[in-house]
C-alpha cells in the first residue's frame, strides 16, 4: 500500500520536459573595489576579460518575452523584454554606469556545454523600456533555442503567477 502511495505522489509531480534556458545579466564591476566580483572571458574568437559583479541584475525569471530579430547587414540579435520592476533595475544600472558593460550569460539546454557568456554590450544610454537587445556570440540555432527556452520558462512562470 505504501508503495502505491509513493508512486502515486510521484505521478502528480511529474512534469513534461520542454525547452530549458537560463539568462543572467551582470553589471561590470571595479576589480579593486568589490570582493563579490569575478573576472570572466567573453567572445570566443577574440576573448576579452571583464570583471563583473557575481550577483546578476536580471535573470530568466524576470523575462516577459524573447525573440531573435534580424539585424541590418544580414546578422541577428536577441531581444529580451523584462517585467516592469526588474526593468527599473536595468534602467537604474544603465543610467548610473555609462561607459561600462553588461555581461550576458545564456544557457539553452540542461547540458552545461550549451551555455556561455554571450555578449558584453557597452552601456551608451539609459535603457528605460525594460528591453535589452544584444548580438550574441552564438549560432542562429543556439539563439533560437535560448529564445524558445526563455519563452517556455515565462509561460510556466505566468501560469504559476495566475494560480496564486
SSE diagram, text form:
Elements: H1 2-13, E1 22-27, E2 37-42, E3 48-53, E4 58-59, E5 63-70, E6 76-82, H2 84-96, E7 102-107, E8 115-119, E9 131-134, H3 140-162
Antiparallel strand pairs: 1-4, 1-7, 2-3, 5-6, 6-9, 7-8
Overview of the structural elements:
- The protein has 164 residues and is an alpha+beta fold.
- The chain has one domain (16-162): Gyrase A, domain 2, CATH 3.30.1360.200.
- It is built from 3 helices and 9 strands; from the N terminus they run αββββββαβββα.
- The chain has helices spanning 2-13, 84-96, 140-162; strands at 22-27, 37-42, 48-53, 58-59, 63-70, 76-82, 102-107, 115-119, 131-134.
- A 4-stranded antiparallel beta sheet has the order 4-1-7-8.
- The longest helix is centred in the C-terminal third of the chain and has 23 residues, at 140-162.
- Mean pLDDT is 85; it is low at 1-14 and 158-164.
Give a quick rundown of the structure.
With 164 residues, the chain is of the alpha+beta class. Helices cover 29% and strands 30% of the residues. It is built from 3 helices and 9 strands.
